[in-house]
């Protein structure tokens, strides 16, 4: 904390922000990690990356935070609910395929309470139907599925560092894990408010957990 305070760089994308992102990339084996103000912001980024034309659908568990429903609606997606399993409270993978139509764009598995969804089945379904997979791993930081970190199996993973989660940034914070190299450039531009400012040294302000929050992560 003293080092962060003394750096003269208290906003996002300072030295600790970069170190935190690099650590996550190495620890979880993701292509690119980007810190965000919250997991909600990360999920909104994922919705934009999925590229919902008007009326396209997203499937996710009924037991789910209504904030992301709002983000999906903002991205012009139609939400299709899939019931949950009684044993894990995660999305019931056996019910997903029956809910898929020609308008379906994405599957959003939520790893509730750090318990992994059945990702092999979900990814196989997504592959058969050419669907985007966004892992809501808000409660799954450091959890794994068959040896793979949650958030690194789908096209995109979303972490939370809210005070109620396993790991906190001191109140709020999130991260987006990009697991498809083709999405990295678009993800960076979305995160930077529609600009490529990271390519220019004269522009430095980014809305991410700042130099004080990043060391806590």
TrEMBL record:
Domain of life: Bacteria
Family note: Belongs to the DegT/DnrJ/EryC1 family.
The protein's name in its UniProt record: UDP-4-amino-4-deoxy-L-arabinose--oxoglutarate aminotransferase
InterPro entries hit by this protein: DegT/StrS_aminotransferase, PyrdxlP-dep_Trfase, PyrdxlP-dep_Trfase_major
One Pfam entry name: DegT_DnrJ_EryC1
GO annotation, biological process: polysaccharide biosynthetic process
Molecular-function GO terms, alphabetical: dTDP-4-amino-4,6-dideoxygalactose transaminase activity; pyridoxal phosphate binding; UDP-4-amino-4-deoxy-L-arabinose aminotransferase
EC number: 2.6.1.87
Lineage of producing organism: Bacteria, Pseudomonadati, Pseudomonadota, Gammaproteobacteria, Enterobacterales
Primary enzyme class: transferase
Keywords assigned by UniProt, alphabetized: Aminotransferase, Pyridoxal phosphate, Transferase
Species of provenance: Raoultella terrigena
């Amino acid at each position: 904390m003293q080092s962060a305070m003394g750096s003269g760089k208290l906003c996002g994308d300072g030295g600790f922000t970069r170190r935190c992102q690099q650590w996550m990339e190495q620890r979880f084996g993701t292509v690119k990690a980007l810190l965000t103000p919250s997991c909600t912001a990360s999920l909104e980024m994922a919705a934009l990356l999925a590229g919902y034309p008007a009326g396209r659908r997203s499937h996710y568990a009924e037991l789910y935070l209504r904030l992301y429903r709002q983000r999906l609606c903002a991205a012009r997606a139609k939400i299709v609910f899939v019931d949950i399993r009684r044993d894990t409270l995660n999305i019931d993978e056996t019910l997903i395929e029956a809910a898929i139509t020609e308008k379906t764009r994405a599957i959003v598995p939520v790893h509730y309470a750090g318990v992994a969804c059945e990702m092999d089945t979900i990814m196989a379904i997504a592959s058969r139907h050419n669907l985007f997979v966004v892992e809501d791993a808000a409660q799954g930081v450091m959890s794994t599925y068959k040896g793979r970190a949650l958030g690194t199996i789908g096209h995109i993973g979303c972490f939370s560092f809210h005070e109620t989660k396993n790991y906190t940034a001191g109140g709020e914070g999130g991260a987006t894990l990009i697991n498809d190299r083709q999405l990295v450039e678009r993800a960076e531009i979305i995160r930077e408010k529609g600009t490529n400012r990271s390519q220019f040294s004269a522009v430095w302000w980014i809305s991410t957990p700042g130099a004080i929050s990043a060391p806590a992560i």
